[in-house]
Write a structure and sequence with these properties.
One of its GO terms (molecular function) is protein serine/threonine kinase activity. By secondary structure, the chain is α+β, with helices and mostly antiparallel strands. Among the domains are: 58 residues, no CATH class; 146 residues, Beta-Lactamase (2-Layer Sandwich); 118 residues, Phosphorylase Kinase, domain 1; 195 residues, Transferase(Phosphotransferase) domain 1 (Transferase(Phosphotransferase), domain 1), CATH 1.10.510.10. 26% of the residues lie in helices and 23% in strands. It contains 18 helices and 31 strands. The strands form eight sheets. Strands 11, 12, 13, 14, 15, 18 and 20 form a seven-stranded antiparallel beta sheet that branches. Strands 7-6-5-10-9-8 form a six-stranded antiparallel beta sheet. A six-stranded antiparallel beta sheet has the order 19-24-25-23-22-21. A hairpin with a 7-residue loop joins strand 27 and strand 28. The longest helix has 20 residues. It is globular.
């Protein structure tokens, strides 16, 4: 509704029930050059509109948005309500973080956001004026709930992302053109909200900068979960869940004893942030620590020299150091990690898009998704606006007494054919005063000498994937900690299967390595020695297929209603069919083909600028004909075929069904069955109604191919060899139509 009231324009948008009314008031002549003032006109009323004289407006049409209420996390709602986190908005413990992030990213807006069923509550917001909440239906932070695993959400140019085509904060005032958010991952994996930074112009940062954002999200979570009784209960539940689901690590915090952030560029290492636990360990209040030089307040002990410490940090390394307070005499041990580390909470492996460049990649480019003319070589970036995180900022993490961390034994490297009984006795523990890994829980084995880990990219149930450098090449390092001989053999088989397939449309596996490691729980109960399997693969620098589809890369332009770019769609599907044909020719069934396991990598010779490659053989197995298989151990539920769910029949035709789901996603722009529960998907597919219908505007030939891929009779589905021929013909026909 629009009403002119004494020179003001009033807009009311009702978008949920009870009616959530967004009132935007401001002078009609307000200058658009001052977007900051926009937030001072933002107010909300959460009560239902019961006025008899004014009907409630219908919910706005937001085709680009998902049904967030249908996807609501009941555990998040329960915890946020029980803890009362939304009651207080401005708290110093969060203001320290949001103000620091605003300064580091040089953005006008920074905030901690908590997601509730109908609104987003802002804690310690910077740059929002007096605004304390925004409507849930328009909030960009909703997208941290979409990915099955926690992952940072990055919109470096919001106007080039189809998901935000209708977002009023992008289309109109205030015109948010940059948005980056790290999920607030609570104990057990519940995502409470985001730690976000925003700007009114497109921005690009390195992967290390976004890792810094993720680490501050973890520090914010530790502040939220400061109630010891609630935390203990949630931690027990998280550990029980991890054991039930055979996960490597429980999703719990590990850096809860005390954390400070140090600016190593300044004399005496100025402390720019400390949490309350760090100040308690030091015996001094936070106010007396922030802004002071770290080496003015503390001194190294146990014979450690200051020059040795600076030599480690100058190259972005990590180190464990014993220190003593110059004021109180208190002695304790800290670990110095670069601010881009993933060691603050190893159990909470939050990923980042692989298209983000590393500050250490000499060929990397910033702004690859920000539009034409906005790409910049990483080496030529403005370091005052995009800092060198690894060398400039460090976390000092207090190490608890008597707690041993996961470590790797570099002298116990084994061949790929090793089994547990072949392992030598575990060596003695190393001294705590030594250099430690900045990334990951382990050091590389001797067989992978020269491997340098970088920022974490993503994680799965059994492993983590890091960007890494090996002999001058950028690679993806997958690290699997095997807690049983069965898992170890399964993981080795994955590596061997991947190495056996060499094809331009299959992600190349470069090398494998096996190591022995020790592991201790926090309570001191020692675990047996375990294998750590390392799999090095080529690094794909354009992200996953599902991410590209959602951004609108498969459309004629970046809008949710734009028609598909059928030539790009056909070429990409042919890439996948080529790769899968090569995999099936080896007698291998992938078992988990989906948009997250198809990677895109840059290609100057391809008109699209990229090629697609099939990845992740974690669930693959040799299969000739049909086999019986326990369906619980196979694949992503949204892509599983009816014969596997209903009759436990595993065959190559199951991969074809999954391919059909990918075909639907590529022309619809959404992930399949995103708003359905696991049980709902199973019922739908097992009832014979799982075949998906593409939008009406796609070519009939495309609809026909998709329909054959999703036939309930798996024996009637085409092979990937046949599909490859279909797409070759489709590309020729599409090209002739475009030319004519």
């Amino acid at each position: 509704k629009k009403r002119h009231i004494f020179g003001f324009r009033r807009h009311t948008l009702s978008c949920s029930s009870p009616a959530l009314r967004l009132d935007l008031e401001g002078p009609q002549s307000r200058a658009s050059s001052a977007p900051q003032s926009y937030w001072s006109f933002l107010s909300f009323t959460m009560a239902p509109n019961n006025s008899a004289s004014e009907a409630v407006a219908a919910p706005p049409t937001m085709e680009a948005n998902y049904d967030w209420l249908a996807m609501e996390d009941a555990e998040r709602v329960k915890r946020v309500d029980m803890a009362g986190w939304v009651e207080a908005t401005t708290e110093p413990r969060f203001s320290y973080i949001t103000n620091l992030l605003q300064e580091l990213f040089q953005v006008p807006i920074s905030t901690v956001s908590l997601i509730t069923p109908d609104r987003i509550c802002l804690k310690a917001p910077v740059g929002f004026g007096d605004t304390e909440q925004v409507p849930r239906c328009f909030a960009m932070c909703n997208f941290v709930c979409v990915s099955p695993k926690p992952e940072a959400v990055v919109f470096e140019n919001t106007r080039l992302d189809a998901r935000l085509a209708h977002n009023p904060f992008v289309k109109g005032d205030p015109g948010l053109l940059f948005y980056a958010a790290a999920p607030l991952v609570g104990t057990g994996g519940t995502r409470y909200g985001t730690m976000c930074v925003c700007d009114y112009k497109p921005r690009s940062f390195t992967a290390e900068m976004y890792r810094l954002l993720i680490n501050f999200a973890e520090l914010a979570v530790q502040e939220l979960e400061s109630d010891q009784k609630m935390l203990e209960r949630w931690t027990k539940d998280a550990i029980a869940s991890a054991r039930l689901n055979n996960e490597m690590q429980a999703c719990v915090s590990t850096a809860i004893e005390g954390v400070a952030m140090i600016d190593a560029r300044r004399p005496a290492w100025e402390m720019v942030y400390t949490n309350t636990r760090f100040s308690a360990t030091c015996g001094e209040p936070v106010e007396d620590l922030v802004g002071k030089g770290f080496w003015h307040l503390f001194k190294p002990i146990d014979g450690t020299k200051f020059d040795d410490i600076t030599a480690t940090t100058a190259v972005g390394g990590s180190r464990v150091v014993g220190i003593e307070s110059c004021k109180t005499g208190a002695q304790f041990t800290i670990a110095l990690y670069p601010a881009s580390t993933d060691r603050l909470a190893p159990g909470k492996a939050t990923g980042i898009p692989s298209w983000l460049p590393s500050q250490n990649d000499p060929t990397g480019k910033l702004g690859v998704v920000s539009g034409e003319g906005m790409q910049t070589d990483v080496s030529a970036r403005d370091k005052s606006a995009c800092i060198d995180v690894e060398k400039c900022f460090y976390f000092a993490v207090v190490q608890p007494v008597g707690r041993k961390r996961l470590r790797s034994d570099s002298n116990a490297g084994q061949s790929d054919s090793s089994t547990f009984k072949d392992l030598p006795p575990r060596p003695d523990s190393v001294s705590s005063r030594e250099s430690v890994s900045s990334y990951g829980d382990f050091s590389p084995p001797q067989s992978l000498d020269g491997l340098q880990l970088g920022p974490l990219v993503g994680s799965g149930s059994f492993g983590k994937v890091y960007r890494a450098s090996w002999h001058g090449a950028i690679v993806a390092a997958k690290i699997v900690r095997c807690l049983s001989e069965e898992l170890f053999q399964w993981s080795v088989d994955e590596g061997r299967l991947a190495m056996s397939v060499v094809h331009p449309n299959v992600v190349k596996t470069v090398q494998m390595g096996v190591d022995l490691a020790e592991c201790y729980f926090k309570d001191g109960v020692e675990l047996d020695a375990v294998h750590v399997l390392w799999i090095l693969q080529e690094y794909c620098d354009r992200g996953t297929l599902v991410d590209a589809v959602e951004r609108g890369c498969m459309r004629t332009h970046r809008h949710i209603h734009a028609p598909p770019d059928m030539m790009a769609v056909y070429r990409t599907l042919k890439d996948i069919a080529d790769g899968m044909a090569a995999i099936h020719a080896k007698g291998i069934v992938h078992c988990d083909l989906n948009g997250r396991n198809v990677m895109l990598t840059a290609s100057d010779s391809d008109p699209r600028g990229y090629v697609a490659k099939v990845a992740d053989f974690g669930l693959a197995r040799m299969c000739h004909g049909e086999e019986m298989a326990p369906c619980k151990t196979f694949g992503t539920i949204s892509h599983l075929p009816p014969e596997l769910l209903k009759d436990q029949i595993l065959s190559a035709a199951g991969d074809v069904w999954a391919f059909g789901v990918i075909m639907w996603e590529m022309v619809s722009g959404y992930r399949a069955h995103l708003e359905k529960s696991k049980e709902g998907i199973e019922v739908l597919v097992m009832s014979g109604k799982g075949a998906m219908t593409p939008p009406a505007h796609v070519p009939q030939a495309y609809k026909d191919i998709l329909a054959t891929c999703m036939l309930n009779d798996h024996k009637a589905r085409p092979t990937f060899e046949e599909l490859r021929g279909m797409f070759e013909l489709a590309i020729l026909e599409e090209g002739s139509e475009t030319f004519s």
